Amino acid sequence: MSSQAQPAVAADLRPWTDPDATPFISVKGVSKRFGTFTAVSDVSLDIYRGEVFCLLGGSGCGKTTLLRMLAGFESPTEGKILIDGKDMANVPADRRPTNMMFQSYALFPHMSVEKNVAYGLLREGKSKPEAMDRVAQMLKLVKLEPYAKRKPHQLSGGQRQRVALARALVKQPKVLLLDEPLGALDKKLREETQFELIRIQETLGVTFIVVTHDQEEAMTLATRIGVMTEGEIRQIGEPREIYESPNSRFVADFIGSVNLFEGTVASLNGAQAVVDTADLGPVTTTAPEGVSVGQTVTLAIRPERFALTRAAPAEGTPNTCRAMVRDMGYGGHISSYRLKLGNGRIVSATQSNRLRDEDPIMWDEEISITFPPPVVRVLTR
Amino acid sequence: MSAGALDRAGAGRFALPLPLKITFGLLVLLAAAGAVLLPQNAALLLGGLVAAVLVAFGLGRAAGISDRWLVIAIPMLWLFVFFLVPFLVLGRISLSEAMIARPPYSPLFEQGADGWEYAGSFGNYQFLAEDPLYASAYISSIRIAATSTLLALLIGYPLAYFIARSPEPRRSILLLLVILPFWTSFLLRVYAWIGLLRRDGVINGFLMWTGIIDQPLVMLQTDFAVYLGIVYTYLPFMILPLYANLVKLDGALLEAASDLGASPILTFFTVTLPLSLPGIIAGSMLVFIPAIGEFVIPALLGGPDTLMIGRVLWDEFFSARDWPVASAVAIVMLFLVVVPIMWLQSVQNRQEGAQ
């Protein structure tokens, strides 16, 4: 199943890199306030046809409110939403080219699986035999044909999830909105279903907007991720971009684990900068634009980017220091270490167990850690 | 098995489970309160009941009957004493003939030439079937009760829906307003309608004053007044079960329907209404059943030609003093009510089974 889930659309076609591409969905300066509480604050984003866009954030960050505004269940206090070039301001939920898969699935308890799926088609004025044909196709796609006559309460959680997906997809919406689509499933089923979702998305070519709090899920599914907190979008980018080049301390810290070091820019030579830190000493790195000498910045280094060696690296290698192994945890595919630096600061590092098989680094060893300039991110926010 | 486990097992055998302890405590409290507050006869009755229950529990435990059965047995006993026994008495009287005696009906067994003979007959039922008055009274009662139920549903549903969709703190206030009329005596409220509906009543007075009408409307002593009275009186019984049902309705289902392209009206008919069917059935039963045997409202608000079985029953008992025919009328009415209830109950069970 995984081999056919080649993200061809995701990798080859990246319309967001093309400044002339027309976005399919445009959210322009949208805010939503409930009384004095601001759920969504001045959000702007463009989503392109065929994308799987993930809104990622903790609970209460406004991601679900944003999704509900796209579906038409809430109207923005400010700003506007365009879908396929059309302003959605006065378009009620039942006339929008979107369908939603609810977190609770919201299956109609008094209707069979087949009737649940047919519901949208019949509302659209399709004849019964025509609708039933489509329903049968859809149930085949989600592998639920044998359950057509069952009521929702006679299904397992995973089956209900697929009914909800079929019901939302059967009308061939231009946009499918998914609210924590895999939230109610257990881990194993969730991993399987992720690839299943991608398969279906690619088969149908529908644009997906997924709300999730699960970063792994977002990384796996998304063409691009929008990281949200406190009603704002902090960064929009491809999963790799979000992970490798976070634009702020918040994003770096929110996605995966990271070591953050405070420092001051000591010298600038073109794009190359040397940052003085209390923990690591002088660190050579590539500075983003607009950084000036004397500015306080944060350096971010992912744990897996540290190279751990017993022997000290060759003289003149930049960005290296000695550390003591305080703790070590075996995690199957990787081992994680907690290392103590000269000034007592603890940093975390991981090493693939493929590299670690022979004569592994163990507790209380003094080792060298090296972090070449490209792996160090300079964060100014 | 450890000593501790043995202890616990031992304690479990002889100690009462907590709910039963609470039940006992409440019963004893009730009895004490009753003895202080109630007049002597009632206190005796209550005390007797409590004693009977306690004895029943004691005997039950001694006989090894589980407590659960005993808990069920209390309401069963109540129903037996106050429903089944009177029903059997009525059934027995309905098989007799009226006579001027005390009690005013013939005995069921008579001393004949060769010992006791069964003297009952279904003559009264035959009489009911032959006299068109009774048939039309039944039909008219069912019609009035059914129409009132429908009206109560049409008025009660939107109200219940509105309350259920109100913000939570407001709901309890609105529900309180629905129940508020119960604080006044039912009879007083029906009398109050007489004052409103009369020829020179409040409504006619107001309409004449505004000049909308120049002749007073005849409202009192019409079927209209009976419908009004029944719907007014029983509306809370429609609203409460409907509310209880509608308040549980998952808002996400309505959003899902709208998301799939159903207009608000279609959403109502395809999702809200079918899911609230158990509430509709419960509310309708609570209105229909008392309405069919209603006596006070047609007697006070209805006209001479408002024919309802409750009035016929009253006339047979108190005017004609024909207890056997009256009993037969009551028994037939009971069956007329019970059969649809049982049907509705089975429909409801199936509905709930499906959810």
Strand order of the largest sheet of chain A: 6-7-8-3-9-10
List the total number of helices of chain A. Answer: 10
Poorly predicted runs of chain B are: 1-14
CA-based gyration radius of chain A: 25 Å
* Estimated structural class of chain B: mainly alpha
Concise summary:
The complex is a heterodimer of chains A (381) and B (355). Chain A is an alpha+beta fold and 381 residues long. Chain A has two domains: 8-97 and 173-250, P-loop containing nucleotide triphosphate hydrolases (Rossmann fold, 3-Layer(aba) Sandwich); 257-379, RNA polymerase II/Efflux pump adaptor protein, barrel-sandwich hybrid domain (OB fold (Dihydrolipoamide Acetyltransferase, E2P)), CATH 2.40.50.
Explain what the structure shows.
The complex is a heterodimer of chains A (381) and B (355). Chain A has 381 residues and is of the alpha+beta class. Chain A has helices at 8-12, 63-71, 113-123, 128-141, 157-169, 187-204, 215-221, 239-244, 249-254, 353-356; strands spanning 25-34, 37-47, 52-56, 78-83, 86-87, 98-101, 175-179, 207-212, 224-229, 232-237, 259-269, 272-277, 281-286, 296-301, 307-309, 320-330, 334-341, 346-352, 366-370, 377-379. Chain A has a six-stranded mixed beta sheet with strand order 6-7-8-3-9-10, sandwiched between helices. A five-stranded antiparallel beta sheet of chain A has the order 13-12-11-14-20. A five-stranded antiparallel beta sheet of chain A has the order 15-19-16-17-18. In chain A, a hairpin with a 3-residue loop joins strand 16 and strand 17 (334-341). Chain A is elongated, with a radius of gyration of 25 Å. Chain B has 355 residues and is mainly α. Chain B has two domains: 12-94, no CATH class; 125-354, MetI-like (MetI-like fold), CATH 1.10.3720.10. Chain B has helices spanning 3-14, 18-37, 40-62, 67-94, 123-130, 132-165, 168-179, 186-197, 202-210, 223-246, 251-259, 264-275, 277-292, 296-301, 309-319, 323-354, and strands at residues 109-112, 115-118. In chain B, helix 10 (223-246) packs antiparallel against helix 13 and helix 13 runs antiparallel to helix 16 (323-354). Chain B is globular, with a radius of gyration of 27 Å. The chains are: A alpha+beta (381), B mainly alpha (355). Chain A binds chain B through residues 71-73, 92-95, 98-100, 102, 104, 106-110, 119-120, 123-124, 151, 153, 167-168, 171, and chain B through 250, 252-253, 255-263, 266, 270-271, 274-275, 354-355.
